[in-house]
Amino acid sequence: MLAETESADLSRSPSPGLSHFFHSLFSLFFPDICRVCEEPLERFTRVPVCRACLEGLRGLPARAGICEGCGLPLAAAGGPCRQCQKGDYEFEQARSFGAYDGVLREVLHLFKYRGMTPLAAPLAARMAEVLKREWAPDRFEALVAVPLARGRERERGYNQAALLARELGRQCGLPVLENVCRRVRATPPQTGLTRAQRLENLRGAFAPGPRAALLAARRILLIDDVFTTGATLSACIRVLRKAGAESVCALTVARTLAG
Ligand SMILES: [Zn+2]
Ligand SMILES: [Zn+2]
Questions:
Q1: 204 phi and psi angles, rounded to 5 deg
Q2: Dist. CA 55–CA 126, nearest whole Å
Q3: For the segment 29-79, what is each residue's pLDDT rounded down to a tens digit?
Q4: How far is the CA of 79 from the centre of ligand 2 (A)?
Q5: Among 31, 98, 236, 238, which is least packed, fewest CB within 10 Å?
């Protein structure tokens, strides 16, 4: 009886406000519930999404079911898809881990807009699986992240593509070339624009960075979070190639699929 009272007393905080404050501060760094399914996180982690949600992320089909150029899932095996036939893209090949919807979309939102940067590690792990499955181990010499405009990066505090590239580089043993390409101006939001409008929107958006000479004769894998129309990737790749890159492929976490 006495023990019970004692433990009850101990659990009563002397200052609920203060304890709440510390709890909130603590859960900011070490979240205690999954931000997708709201189940308690089972282990002490900085990644705010539970293992079940992360393990449930489904990837796009592998080689046989996709366009060999851009990685688009195809109804019939083979390809190339219509866009690749038209020569719409600047990359040699592109691949993405999964479709930009459902849980993957939620996780990417947390990562990109809510400051939950520890998600870079599990997302890069998915990219690493695709990289190993789709390309020969010596296919690339270095990674480059699609740059953000300086103003936007300052506002957000980080470039999500750069965090993914660093994590992927660490996981796959590939160097990341920094400051080889810069975004000269922020492009207005691209949503709702046609492909032609996006291209116009992106004209002159990228320029070589102060270390662009590092690109010379290198086989580059360009990293971004989402492949939407491929217009941003293509605009960036044009600059990388002009600066001397031998070849450029692209890898993103997700890809928007029409319909
Ligand atoms: Zn969850
Ligand atoms: Zn294609």
A1: 70, 15
A2: 10
A3: 667 899 999 999 877 788 999 999 999 999 998 777 899 999 999 987 667
A4: 7
A5: 238
The verdict on whether omega for the bond into residue 80 sits within 30 degrees of 0, i.e. cis, is yes
Helix, strand or coil, per DSSP, at residue 19: helix
**Residue 106: burial class (beta carbons within 10 Å; 0-12, 13-18, 19+):** middle
- Please, what's the b/e burial string for 59-76 (b: 16 or more CB within 10 A of its CB; e: otherwise)? bbeeeebbbbbbbbebee
Give ranges for CATH 3.40.50 in the chain.
62-255
For ligand 1, a single-atom ion, the residues with CB < 5 A are 34, 36-37, 50, 53
Residues with CB under 5 A from ligand 2 (ion): 67, 69-70, 72, 81, 84
| CA-based radius of gyration for the chain | 22
3-state secondary structure of 89: coil
Tell me the one-letter amino acid at 36.
Answer: V
The predicted-structure confidence for 126-147, as pLDDT tens digits, reads as follows 999 999 999 999 999 999 999 9
pLDDT, tens digit, 9 for 90 and up, residues 147-180? 998 888 999 999 999 999 999 999 999 999 999 9
Question: Which run of H or E residues covers position 142?
Answer: strand 142-145
Contact predicate 103/123, CB 8 Å: no
Q: List the one residue out of 162, 239, 164, 152 whose CA is nearest residue 202.
A: 239
Q: Write down the H helix ranges in 118-247.
A: 120-134, 150-156, 160-172, 195-202, 231-242
